[in-house]
Amino acid sequence: MNTAADGLRVEKVHVWRGDRHVLKGVSLELAPRELLHICGPNGTGKTTLLRVACGLLRPEQGAVSWHGQAITGIEPKYQAALAYASHEPALKGDLTALENLYFAVGMKRRATAQELRMSLQRTGVAGCADLPARVLSAGQRRRVAMARVLAMGASLWLLDEPFTNLDAAGADLVSGLLQEHVGGGGSALVVAHHELALDCFVRRLELTP
Amino acid sequence: MNVGLWRAMTLVVRRELCLSFRRPDQLLQPLVFFLIVTTLFPLGLSLQLSALRDMAPGVLWVAALLSSLLSLDSLFKSDADDGTLEQLALSGQGLTVIVIAKTLAHWLVTGVALVLVSPLVGTALDIPGSAFGVMMGSLALGTLTLSWLGAIGAALTVGLRRGNVLLSLIVLPLAMPLLIFGAGATDRAISGVSAVGALYFLAALCVFTCTLAPFAATVALRITLE
Q1: Count of structural domains, chain B
Q2: Integer distance in angstroms from the first to the last C-alpha of chain B?
Q3: Is there a smaller number of Cβ atoms within 10 Å at the N or the C end of chain A?
Q4: If DSSP codes are grouped into helix, strand and coil, which group holds residue A19?
Q5: What mean pLDDT value characterizes chain A?
Q6: What is the pTM of this model?
Q7: Domain, as residue range, for B124
Q8: What CA–CA distance (Å, rounded) separates B12 from B1?
Q9: How far is it, in rounded angstroms, from Cα A200 to Cα A182?
Q10: What gap in Å lies between CA B131 and CA B40, rounded to an integer?
């Protein structure tokens, strides 16, 4: 149904970290309405693969393309289409949750404070909007980071361990958001240790040492 | 892309200013350092007023360079440590734009503040009021140039645990022309001679660094991000 030129495509990437060969010719394809779950033991390069996919890390060999074009040539366009959440929440402790969202999302699109508050509300942290991020708990920070992904309005989500520090309700919430995103035509690359309990189509890519 | 370059830059500058004013101690430390170092000289040397006036430009400029260095270390480091630098790098605006905006914001909170308190130091060092204009102008150009040079150093040392010593070793040799022409301009102004030549040279250095440093710093940061 989907052609190869549609969406994200990672072809035979090799990454060395010093003399350690982390990614050994990993390939993946991700079309719209698809979710790819990257799993595998610690140290098999899951995060590295995600960083390669978002363009932060240039692979020594292999190529990453978006809609048939190499991402190095279309960086601004590709970056505008993606939302990346690293395993750290990437929040400034001295800024409030709302300001954190404002300065991060504002670089990608014009978002009103109302919209940002809405996305904070959807991840269940509306009450923390005006608190400095340093006083939030680890779980609340994760939810704020998820609200940032949501507010960016991107079509491709690249999430690194989005369930860390979340309670059961929070994990359900993130699963629901992923499902809604993929159902709405988006695609997602998710690094997670445990199984994803989602109704939508989930493919698995298992990395081995 | 529906966020323009200008809007993205002002957003980063506003973010940096906002963060600086939430941490006033980091803002004040270099200024207090500048004030203390420059007042130590007249106390420690107990010179004649005329001799003090001869030394004043050098003392003023060395203190200004060192105090500017104090705050450079945190230019990219805090963002790199908490992961927000990655978010900025993936914002679709290009890392160079972010480097330029962050460096300008850094100069606004450190360089401009230093220029504003320099008359106080000038008075303590017995620099005549007629030379204040040249002194402040040369310091403004010098601190801006130093911010650009510092951006390269800060980007190169961002991944290191204790990078601030290495940062000084990288930046200070590059800052020598600033010291020569900055102190020279102030010295000429004190003796009542036209300082235009030295000021032009400082301005040229400033333009030179601001055209090249953002690209160098971008490359250094990209290596760190990998």
Answers
A1: 1
A2: 25
A3: N
A4: coil
A5: 89
A6: 0.91
A7: 5-225
A8: 17
A9: 7
A10: 22
Domains defined for chain A, CATH in brackets? 8-206 (3.40.50.300)
Question: Residue B197's closest CA among B205, B208, B185?
Answer: B185
pLDDT tier for residue B161 given thresholds of 50, 70 and 90: confident
Give rounded-to-5 percent helix, strand, coil for chain B: 85, 0, 15
Q: Which residue in A9, A203, A103, A160 sits closest to B11, CA to CA?
A: A103
Whether the predicted pLDDT of B160 surpasses 90: no
Do B19 and A92 lie within an 8 Å CB cutoff?
Answer: yes
For residues B40-56, one letter each, b for 16 or more C-beta atoms within 10 angstroms of the residue's C-beta and e for the rest, the string is ebbeeeeeeeeebbebb
Q: Which two tokens stand for residue B153?
A: 């150093």
Q: Distance from A142 to chain B by nearest Cα, in Å?
A: 13
pLDDT at B27: 86
Residue contact A88–B83, C-beta within 8 A: yes
Please give the Cα distance from B226 to A15 (Å, whole number): 11
Interface of A with B (CB under 8 A): 54-58, 75-77, 79-80, 82, 84, 86, 88-95, 99, 103-104, 106-110
B12, B18, B87 ranked by CB distance to A90: nearest: B87
Residues from chain B that touch A58, judged by Cβ atoms under 8 A, are 226
Question: Touching check for B66 and chain A: CB below 8 Å?
Answer: no
| Beta-strand relationship, A69-70 and A61-66 | antiparallel
Mutant choice from B91, B99, B222 vs A, greatest count of A C-beta within 10 A: B91
Tell me the nearest-neighbour CA distance from B88 into chain A, angstroms.
Answer: 7
Chain A interface, best mutation among B90, B97, B98, B109, by max A CB count within 10 A = B90
d(CA A76, CA A53) in angstroms, rounded, equals 15
| Cβ–Cβ < 8 Å for A65, A71 | yes
Please judge whether A55 and B90 are an interchain contact, meaning their C-beta atoms are less than 8 angstroms apart: yes
Longest dimension (CA), chain B: 64
Spatial CA neighbour of A104 closest among A119, A122, A126: A119
Query: Which residue among A54, A91, A109 places its CB closest to the CB of B90?
Result: A54
Chain B residue numbers with beta carbons less than 8 Å from the beta carbon of A54 are 90
Q: Each residue of A176-208: pLDDT tens digit?
A: 999 999 999 999 999 988 777 777 778 888 888
